[in-house]
Amino acid sequence: MVETKNEPRIGVFLCHCGTNIAGSINIEEVKNYAKTLDGVVIADEYQYMCSTPGQSKIIDAINENNLNGVVVAACSPRLHEPTFRMATQEGGLNQFRFEMANIRDQNSWVHMHDLEGATEKAKDQVLIAVAKARMLEDLQPKSVPVEHAALVLGAGVGGMQAALDLANAGIKTYLVEKLPTIGGRMSQLDKTFPTLDCSQCILTPKMVDVGRHPLIELRTYTEVEKVEGYIGNFTITLRHKARGVLDPDQAAARAAATGILGTGCNGCGDCDAVCPVIKPNPFEMGMAPRKAIYIYHAQVMPLQYTIDFDACVKCGLCVDACGSEKNAIDLEAVDTFEEIKVGTCILAIGFDLIPIEEKREWGYKQYDNVITGLEFERLICASGPTVGHLIRPSDGKTPMKIGFVLCAGSRDNTGGVNKAYCSRFCCMYSLKHAHQIMEKIPGAVPYLFYMDIRSFGKMYEEFYYRIQNEGAKFIRGRVANILEDPITKNLIVNTEDTLLGRPVAMEMDMVVLAAAVQPKPEAEHIRQMFGVSKSQDGWLLEAHPKLNPCGTTTAGIYLAGVCQGPKDIPDTVAQAEGAASAASIPIHMGEVQLEPYFAMCMEDLCAGCGMCLNQCPYGALDLIEKNGRTVMEVTEAKCKGCGTCGGFCPGGAIKMQHFTSPQICAQIDAFLLKGGVN
Amino acid sequence: MAKVKEYGNAELEEKLRDTSYYTDDSNPQFLEDVKKISRTAANMCFQCGTCTGSCPSAPRSSYRIRLFMRKGVLGLEKEALNDPDLWLCTTCYSCTDRCPRDLAPTDVIMAMRNLAFKFDIVPRNFLKTVQLIYNSGHGVPNNDVNRAARVKLGLPADPPTTHSYPEFIPGIQKIMDFYKMKENADRILSEGEH
Amino acid sequence: MAGNMRQYAFFLGCIAPNRYPGCEAAAIKTSAKLGIELLPLKGAGCCPAPGAFGAIDLKVWYALAARNIVLAEEMKMDITLICNGCYKSIWEVNHILKHNDELRDGVNEVLAEVDMEFKGSIDVWHLIELYYDKKVCGVEKVRDSVVRPLTGTKIAAHYGCHLLKPKKERHFGDTDNPMWFEALIEALGAESVQYRNKMQCCGAGGGVRGYDLTHSLDITNEKLINLEEVGADALTEVCPFCQLQYDRGQVEIEEKFGKKYGLPVLHYNELLGLAQGMTPQELALDLHAIDCTPFLEKIR
Lengths: 678, 194, 300
Known about the structure:
The complex is a heterotrimer of chains A (678), B (194) and C (300). Chain A contains 18 helices and 34 strands. Chain A has 678 residues and is an alpha/beta fold. Among the domains of chain A are: 10-139, Rossmann fold (3-Layer(aba) Sandwich); 248-334, no CATH class; 352-518, FAD/NAD(P)-binding domain (3-Layer(bba) Sandwich), CATH 3.50.50.60; 599-657, Alpha-Beta Plaits (2-Layer Sandwich), CATH 3.30.70.20. In chain A, strand 25 and strand 26 (502-508) form a beta hairpin. Chain B is mostly helical and 194 residues long. Chain B folds into two domains: 24-118, no CATH class; 124-192, no CATH class. Chain C contains 14 helices and eight strands. The radius of gyration of chain C is 19 Å and the shape is globular. Chains in contact: A-B, B-C. At the B-C interface, helix 6, helix 7, helix 8, helix 9 and helix 10 of B face helix 1, helix 2, helix 3, helix 10 and helix 11 of C.
């Protein structure tokens, strides 16, 4: 057998992608061109290169032609690089002896109507890919062990479900929640559509399961301070916000450490009774008071009081009320920190309503009787501030005509507080609100002002039918504005009945705005810590909208619930289970393979100046002593192969594997000189 | 917008008439009456337009059966009943066959016509049918040309209906009188002749 | 009559006996050859007209239709009829009153005034469905009764609305493109011709013919255009009111719109009569507004 190791023998394979590529590019012409390129020993094409016969062509060609480099000109590497690498490997080559030219996304799709231009461009793309393929080297992926623990950030229904799934799969799971209790938005809801289950009734058992699961480490009133590491080996620093109240475990730890006795908080509420400071309770959307020492509601998990130190006057009455036996209150508490190690993380950080008061035309916070859907939930809820009696804020009377403004800020391209997207659950909860009104207030009539009723889920359209049948009125028209009768405080809703083709001015006793949802304000900081992108609309970005909806582009970080985009409870729980499954895979595998695109120090060229260390965004570089010299060393598991150090190194001592300077220069030369050099 | 203008000028007030729909324009009983007479759940219309799309009268007129469904849901009684388009339904039932909500828009129209009659709103040709049936038992009675033709065919000059058995006519009249139908038809027709 | 004849009370309605008596004569004679004996329903009146009369007060419509049904109940005989409008009134009221106690009680309250009671003891049939029904007659039997096949003619079917629709309350199935009527046409030796928008309404119903004749005729004219397009020699239907609209309507269309078609329009029983050897005179085809001669010449 002829020694061919250093002599390039490249195979070029062109994919038609049905008509996606072949419809706009002359494949035959590009193939013939490829055959003329230096080092190319075979050029072939196929209708679907990714199919089994297509891959067989590659495998057979490697063996028959003794190839040492493979170029596939097809779709995006993001879609099929792994596919063709596998084929390359099956053909007996190192999988990194493969280069891809994206002649679909970056060529045929954008030059759909320019066959000639697209064909020329495809030739250039193949030329460039071949130039690199001639210089490819064997590389070995790096295996790293995976920490047998996971983090779930956010303990709403999505986070709780993900944590339960992970824990039930035998993985120690840290469930971190910013608020003093788990439960999230769902615990604020009265009933859930379309089944009309009581939200608390189906949620509370799950909260209890979370609280007592031996593998769930619950961290409430806690935020993520810092994220370090990579898939398999994240080090997360948690900030336990000063709560001022010790739970029994913390009290026991204190006794052991300091000898101060006390059994800790048992949720008796004696402190609450004596606290003189009154603040609005955000759980009740500010419609009910709480004290400076408080719990959100009766079903909190854990049942442990919290001091709002921004409000607390440190009068000490609560300490006395708590008494020496429990001795649970510590008015001098400060934030503490905890470092945890996990293999994978799930972000389930939820959503907020938009500040709907900024839509001035609808009068929220101008008119007493305009409320939001979430406020309605609390007002209609038996455990809410009015014990379930829906009343008008202006005079406490029972409203008989209630308007529901759908798409309040959703599907609105005007920017700012407005959102271009559909918030996806407002139609359904407004239908549910309509039902609740008719159920609770005899003779009351709900009027739903809508553009479309989007009742897409299982049994949702049937629910819509049911509510219409119960007597709800539907006006197809987006509400232009709402005016208040200055005397009665009734509201005049102006829109067009687009089905009638007439302006509408309907007097309502109360109006409920189905406000759009938006990402949490802290989502931006969190996503930066975890290295997650966001989509145009601000929500956290999934790895692929269809084929990887739970993953992110950062390995080991997964998404669940509305933080990835608006979704209702069933979809949130489904995505949470998907994210938990995905997050458990690396943990159960025990190790992960990292792509070997690391920076590599060529020690004989390294001067040990250390200037690269500060350039590295990932802290992957260190200076070490080796053979009596100071040289740089790369921690491969931390290195993301970004190339910052390689481009910066004054001595040219850092080699970026798979993206070496000679490889890149060869590509540039090939393009500029049209293959004129070797 | 102020509903009452008091400009003292009828033409001006009509030109500038407030076309808005207000809640108090609605008579909820109208929808209930329509449902009862039509025996269909008229409140369940979701305004898809399949009915108008199926309607042979729609393309050649301003008649939109979907709009009548809408006015029923909104309780716009006067508007629906005073609309001359109400009488353009040929009752072909194509809309009823295709309605995705399994409603019978045709029967809603029939119900609205029944309700219109209670307000004396009804085209004259409908009333004339009432009078003919009351007097002869037939909406399209026999005539001499036809009698001659029947005889030529070997049929009796008058068919074996109320035409041959006029003793049945009082029964028909009793039934119609029970509902004061003839009385109302006569009154409306005579008022129209003034 | 032979003992194997099925007997029905023949509900005539208005237009057949009083405008197209040939339909009445043909129905009686042709049915006899198919084992169906039609007996007079003495004292019957208007069905009454479902659109023109029902539009005013459905309660009276129920009661007057019920009166006609009770006449047949007293004969202990099912009703058959040859008009879709009559079918709508008589079949539907019979059906509704059988299934709706509240309405039936209301109707019986009125009928008591004339010493009648709706019992729900009989069924109502359109004669055409008896012809198609194998248990009663069937297409084969119709074919076997033909002595003068209508060979060489292209005949279009008009089903009419009130026979088939609303389909959820009827038993005829498909109302968008049914083919059973065509089978009965072909049984006579004719070619049944398909045309655009076959199921469109004649335009006469619902009182529209009386209310806005121009509007009504514009609907009628649409079908005539579609029939001209495929070169139909005749249109056949099973409803004298549709027949009136297409037959006399052509005269009115010529007057109003200046369009002339000369398309013969025959009730299926008239066609069947011709195929069974009846003469045009026996069918009073001279009473038709549109001259049937061109069609008759084709089958001579």
